[in-house]
Amino acid sequence: VRMTLEDLRLNQLTLGFAYLRDGEVVATGVQGVACLTRRPGGDPGHPPEPAPLPASLVEALRPYRTGAAHG
What we know:
It contains one helix and five strands, in the order βββββα. With 71 residues, it is mainly beta.
């Protein structure tokens, strides 16, 4: 499996995947990930709010960036 960082935003990222068999791509896919938070003591009935991606995660994904990814 090959993974690439396709897009990087303040609170979300998109990962691309290529599945290989004998060196040939047999399937591809993408997965979006968003970082959200709830206010401490907040009403659980309110939706979560966007939160910045952890800097350590952004740094760990840098080697997987494609030309389209920024951040």
